[in-house]
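Trying the structure run again after the queue cleared.
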Amino acid sequence: MNTRAALVAILVSLSILPPVASEASGPVGITFPPGFPTITDASLGVPVIGFGGRGPVTRTPVIFLHGNNDTPYPTTCNGGFGNTRRFAQYFHDNGYALSELWALGYQGEQCDLATNPPNRSGPAHSAAANVPDLRAFVNAVLSYTGASQVDIIGHSLGSTLTREWMRQDNAYAKVRRFIGVDGPDHGIINCSPDPANYWQLPALGGFTPDSAICTEFGSDQTPLLATLNAGDETPGPTEYMTVRNADTSFVFFSVQDGSLPPVPAKDRKGNAHDFSQSARLEGAENVEVRAQGQYDNVLLTAHLGILNSPGVWATAFRFLTAGESPASSPSVGPEPGTLADSGPPVWPQAAGVALLLLGLAAVRSIHRHNLTVAGHEMEA
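Done. Tokens:
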């Protein structure tokens, strides 16, 4: 088996690891409550997944949105990820009712990615395809809870998806406060035609310049981003915060991020471009964090770790509860004995650890031997 084939096998194996037992024991669930309407995913034709709760609502409900290729909780096909639920659990541990915590899975359970990896960058994963899902979900949460507004926390693609929905629907009055966590608001680094951009490989997602994701995010001047960022980047009465990685993030920085080697800092046209400030929004409260890779228990990356970071959870909690009387005082870290304090996942089998270590070695080997020579043809 060549190096690339080995890497593909490792990534597929990691993606299908089953959820760890501790993720099933906490009070934040993995379903919608009785009476919540069934919402059909506009691009997949199946019911959306997610979670929410039934009961009185005294705070503004919070909607959590995952990033591209993720899910709101660990699924059969995404067992090593799905940390949105842990984020919500922190809020519950610090006083939010389950009826005030909601999440939308707008790309299904990701089971198609094992057999068709280019779906990672395909039309069904684009912001344009998923605005209808978010529109329907927000309206359903408002109707079900009787609330007049929601707060939204979006990680990565979930951040820009939220902003595009608000722009399309002029829905700013529906969103009291918004937090973008390492969002691609001014593009990503993974879409260049440079041979050293290994994300172009079909087995690693097919992030070619003309893929659906790259036509939206491969430059800071794509039609989507040019329109979204024209004039005021934080319009309406909504209060905005961003939390971004300031040292590394594999979608923005041309530096090592955990197990993932860097790719050239170029846009989808091959022009040199600095994406390191992509997640900032002019007019928002912009928070910078570092060393977030320690919270990614699979690939050790800052871009994924930031979603699973107790410090980021606490920052978001303080922003959303600011002005409450009496003021809320979240724990700096998770409360003992809760889902959010369950720590790094324990692989169901020792083989999982071996797979991870082999995967990291394969990524480094690919980068070192196949992708670093300028003008080199990438292997098929």
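The chain has nine helices and seven strands. Worth checking whether this holds up in the mutant runs.
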